[in-house]
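B., you asked whether I could sanity-check this one before it goes into the benchmark set. Here's the sequence:
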Amino acid sequence: MVIEEQKVGILTYNIHIEDVHGELLEQASEDNPRTLYLAQAVCLKALKTN
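And here's what the prediction gave me:
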């Protein structure tokens, strides 16, 4: 993922409790993605590596 300031990103993800086999806490699917406005070029390490 390349992160640039003043850009919009469309994300899909699954958030599970504890690990990938844990209870599904939140999901952003291809049918219902999340929009992320990047005001500053800062991102969680986990989003950069997966």
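One thing to flag: The chain is about 10% helix and 40% strand. Otherwise nothing jumped out at me.
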